[in-house]
Design goal:
Number of strands: 0
Largest sheet: none
CATH architecture of the largest domain: Orthogonal Bundle
Strand content: under 5%
Order of helices and strands: HHHHHHHHHH
Helix content: 40-55%
Radius of gyration: 21 Å
Number of domains: 3
Distance between the termini: 46 Å
Structural class: mainly alpha
Length: 185
């Protein structure tokens, strides 16, 4: 017999604290698979959200447009304390309240979060908030993507994103590679 178990607790820590039986831990810990939380896998959000939107739209018999870039940015900006289940619930709510085939994130995302974001998906935070390296990286990535989209993905030249961002085109190309930015077709 094989047992497949999942938990959001650190069982090794629980064993060390005497809160979980050591013998049971070693029986369950044959082939551990650790999945990072959704907030650490932001690039998975568009694929998951699209799959959930398609499934719920089919379930309720409604046609849904693909997620817009602004919607994707808004979803990526959220921290997802409830992980993939929360994303699934929010997308279901967004499909149910959709209008003209567009998911309605305004009514689906938590109120406290919706009040903190602008229409383009950027967070409206107080300037004194200290940001983590990951938050700064995500902000830089979103800003570069926004600049590239507004310039038709042209990097250099008079109408290029580098000029818009006030940086050298080779520097922008380097940042695009470092941040893993790719043009979606």
């Amino acid at each position: 017999m094989r047992v497949i178990a999942a938990t959001n607790r650190d069982l090794k820590k629980s064993v060390d604290l005497g809160e979980f039986r050591a013998d049971l831990y070693y029986r369950l810990n044959v082939f551990p698979i650790t999945v990072p939380p959704l907030r650490e896998r932001k690039d998975d959000i568009p694929l998951l959200a699209s799959a959930f939107a398609s499934r719920f739209a089919t379930k309720i018999g409604r046609a849904i447009n693909p997620l817009s870039e602004a919607s994707v940015r808004r979803l990526k900006a959220y921290d997802w304390p409830g992980n993939v289940r929360e994303l699934e619930n929010i997308i279901e709510r967004a499909v149910i309240t959709s209008q003209d085939g567009n998911v309605n994130l305004d009514r689906a995302l938590p109120e406290s979060y919706s009040a903190e974001i602008s229409s383009d998906g950027a967070r409206l935070e107080e300037p004194s908030k200290i940001r983590t390296v990951q938050e700064l990286r995500e902000q830089e990535r979103a800003n570069i993507i926004l600049a590239l989209e507004s310039c038709g993905w042209r990097v250099a030249g008079a109408n290029g994103a580098a000029r818009l961002l006030g940086m050298n085109p080779s520097t922008l190309n380097s940042r695009i590679r470092a941040l893993g930015i790719e043009r979606r077709r």
